[in-house]
Every structure is written in C-alpha cells, then in structure tokens.
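subagent[fold] <- orchestrator: predict structure for attached chain, return tokens only, no commentary.
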Amino acid sequence: MSESNHRPIFIVGCQRSGTTMLRLMLDSHSQISCGPETRFLEDLERIVGADWKRLSQFGYSQEEWLRRIRSFFEGIQSDYARSRGKTRWADKSPRYALHIPFLMQVFPDAQIVHVIRDGRDVAVSHRKRFGYWSSVKSSVKWPRYISAARGAGSALGEDSYHELRYDRLVADTEATLRQLLEWLGEEWEPEILDFATKKHDVPERYHRQLAARNHKAGTDGSVYASRVGTYRSELDPLVRTLFWFTSRRTLRDLGY
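subagent[fold] -> orchestrator:
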C-alpha cells in the first residue's frame, strides 16, 4: 500500500454543490470510508486562533494542541473506517471550505477535494431544499466559499488540492471519478458507480428525497445531468440580479 493511501481526504464546497453525492461515491470504494459530516473541527480552530491567548496559559505549544486535535479526530475516523472494513477515511463537511488552512495545520498530509458547481444552480437547489431566503443568501455565500477554498488551494501543492466540477461529474461520471481516484492514489473500482445501491450511514430523509427526485424525473438513477443549467428556467429574477452584483466575476473566472 502506498503512503498516499493513508492520507486524510476532505470533501469541501458550498452546500448544494454535489458534495453529498461525491461522499457516497467515495464511500462505496472498498478502501475509503466517508461517514456523516463532522463540522466540529471549525470550532476547534479557536484553540489556536481566537482563544489562543487564554489557552496558551496552559503552557502547551500550538503544535501540541494541534497534535492532540489530530489524534482525537483521526482516532474517531480511523476506528469508524476499520469497523466498516476500510483502510482510509474521508470527511465531507462543506463548511470546511472556509477553514482549509486550519485543516492543513492539523493534517499537513491531507488531500482536499473542492467540489464546484455553478452558483446559480446552487441557488436553485437552495430554494428547493431550504426555501427562498436561503436562495437569496446563497448569492453571497457561494462566492465566499469559492474564494476561500480556491485562495487556500492556490497555496497548496498539486497533490494536496483538487478541484472537481459538478457539471463534469454528472456528464461524464466514470472519467471524472477515475481521474479523482488516480489523484487520491487509489485503484479504480466500478462499484462506486452503483453508490446508490450501497449501504451508507445517511439520514432517512436522504432516501426519501432521492425517491422523490427519481419519481419526478421518471428514472431510477442517482446522477442527474438534467440539474446542470437549471438556473436558466428556474432562477428567480431577484436572485439572478443579486448574482450579477455579487458573483459575475467569480462566474466568469470559473467559465460559467
């Protein structure tokens, strides 16, 4: 087994960008375990950040705090992976897109996968999942997530940061996943294409939502190329205008 097979994997990106789908795809690999979102690492960042002046009085160095955070988090993930017969763990927590520098402090060997989706489609998905106000707020949230993750990624080596486009993932799923697995240092396994038939630790609402989407689309599939470009017919005029003000440069830079 190569050294890269022990490296932590973090899947990040603005919510409603396809991070859950990618999580389940990787979780279907025989060697990779990608369980529920953790989210709490961002809270622990305060130890060496906002709360450092106070906590430094314990006399431990920042390196010691980071070592203990890593030991705690890695212990949970590794035990969970082993309980499922896996040798490597991944974490899908979209909000970690805003905390990549801290992730790399704790896990210098981590591999960051940044899932990017057209922000206007993200806004449509926010409205359907969380309501209209969430769609409005996404016009500010989406460019902030993109800027934070890409900015942090630009400071990392090519073997530590990888951008994965949602539109390519759903249009050419196998080729995109083959490229990703090669980058991760893992063997290709066609079983990951059948991720929806595998057992995953997900909330029951995920299965209900998947069934509802399948019924509406008249399909039993789990990858929806039809969800690319939905903003053209489904984006509210107000939100479309907000995106023009907040995100037109980001959209242009990404080729959307």
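orchestrator: received. Logging for downstream: The CA atoms of residues 167 and 228 lie 6 Å apart. The longest helix spans residues 62-83.
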